[in-house]
Amino acid sequence: MPAPLRLSFLGVTHPHAAAWADAARDDPETEVVAVYDHDADAATAFAATYGADRVARAGEALAAADAVVVDGRNDEAVPFATLAVEAGLPVFIEKTGARAAAELVGLAASAREAGVVTQMGYFMRYSDSVVATAEALASGELGRVGLARFHAAIPHQAWTSMAHWFADASNVVTPFMEAGCHLVDVVRLLLGEPDDVTATSVRWAGTTSPAEDALAATMRVGDTVVVIDFTAHEASPWNIAWGGELYGDAATRTFGVTPARTSVGTGDHVATVDAPVDLTDADAVRDRMAQENTELMRRGMRAFADAVRGRTPSPVDATSGARTLELIEDVLRAAATPGVRRRD
Asked: N or C: at which end does the chain have fewer Cβ atoms within 10 angstroms?
């Protein structure tokens, strides 16, 4: 086995930073060696947790590394990732990767020109149910798919427990961009790029949300109508309701991202359900989701190590990340466009 890939973290204040570092620590092919963050206290605590050096300058972190993980605020992502690219180091970039698609487009172009590997931190694409759905689409199992619906959400309680992140308008552009980006990545993975987009949204009075509180987008992807709906105030906990439904003329397939479950209907009144846990057992579901979240991060980190070592291409590079942000910006622009009003 080759020596572990030495990873330096530039930025560690993103809510996912610890999970990615856990994945790196758990994998014999990667190790966290250095940490830099503008917040010295955050960097010191993070470095202590992972047995890494807390360095005073970003350049020291770059000098210690074979590759870089960028996992701070959204407004830090492109500046930190640019440092890695300029140093010729492969870089793993936490989602959203930027506050604007154009910033990530520019970074992706620089990385391509420099021949530097990039990977985005989109982990829901590694869910067993997403992978199985992609295989079902590729095999033609569903027949001709006329409609696909997808759902994502932020739990309402997150506006209390994670207000420092989601309510900070200098960090989060909109809730849909911040959280819904995961599912937009999945939609693009499964179905490709939309031909056109329409959308609508609502903004509630009295919330701390920096933008929309709920949103729905309708897109056309070839011969398929695709709907993504999103709420920033769902009663359910994180990720439990995330998933999609694909309606084909041969089969209907429903999937939940985590626990990674599917159901397939082919004309009978009862669909065939495949679930890794008893979905009526709350404790079992909670434990399974925690296990799967850990595994999804491990898969993403191993994919990055494989891409850096030249074994496989990056599954979701900065160019793809920029395309996801471009689609989100198209949705937000469409939502700001007045719809057709009903006649009196």
From this structure: C
Q: Scanning the structure block, which residue is given the tokens 């970074």?
A: 107
The answer to whether 170 and 75 have CB atoms below 8 angstroms apart is yes
**Would you state the pLDDT for residue 93?**
98
DSSP state at residue 9 = E
pLDDT beyond 90 at 91: yes
Using alpha carbons only, give the angle 161, 15, 70 rounded to the nearest 5 degrees: 160
Model pLDDT, residue 340: 85
DSSP assignment, residue 237?
A: P
Q: What is the pLDDT of residues 305-324, one digit of tens each?
A: 999 999 999 999 999 999 99
What single-letter amino acid sits at 187?
V
Nearest CA-CA partner of 221 in 325, 139, 138, 146? 146
Q: What are the tokens at 9?
A: 């973290």
How does strand 145-155 pair with strand 243-248? Answer: antiparallel
Q: What's the gap between Cα 226 and its chain centre?
A: 19
The DSSP output letter for 340 is: P
Cβ atoms of 260 and 276 within 8 Å: the answer is yes
With a CB cutoff of 8 Å and minimum separation 6, the contacts of 326 are: 101, 105
How far is Cα of residue 120 from the mean position of the Cα atoms in its chain? 8
| 231-261 pLDDT per residue, tens | 999 999 999 999 999 999 999 999 999 999 9
Question: Domains in the chain, please, with CATH?
Answer: 5-116 (3.40.50.720), 124-295+328-335 (3.30.360.10)
Q: Is the model's pLDDT at 344 over the cut of 80? A: no
Contact 142, 134 (CB under 8 A): no
Type of residue numbered 208:
T
